[in-house]
Amino acid sequence: MIGFHMLRNRKGHARYYRVDVAYNLFGEYSVLREWGVRGVPGASGRRQVTWFANLRDACLAAEALQTSAARRGYSRFQGEV
C-alpha cells in the first residue's frame, strides 16, 4: 500500500486528509481518500474510493490529490491520523 497523511490546523481544529493506493482482489488499483476533523467527538470523517485499471493512473491521481490538498493548506504528516 502506498499512501500519505496530511494535516491542517485552523480555528483550533486539526483537519486530516489521507490518501492510500492499494491493489485489490479484482486486479484493480484503488485510491482511498479519507478526510475530516481530528479529535472532535461525534465528528465523523468522510471516505471516497476510486478504482483504476493500472498502478500508474492510480499514482497520478493520488499525486494530484496531494497537490490539491497542499494548495488548501495541508502539510505532510508522519504517523497515524
From TrEMBL:
InterPro entries in the cross-refs: WGR_dom_sf, WGR_domain, YehF/YfeS-like_WGR
Its signal peptide is none
Return the PROSITE patterns for the record. WGR
Coiled coil ranges: none
- Where in this chain does the record put each WGR domain? 1-81
Check the record and name the CDD domains matching this protein.
Answer: WGR_MMR_like
- Superkingdom field: Bacteria
Protein name per Swiss-Prot or TrEMBL:
WGR domain-containing protein
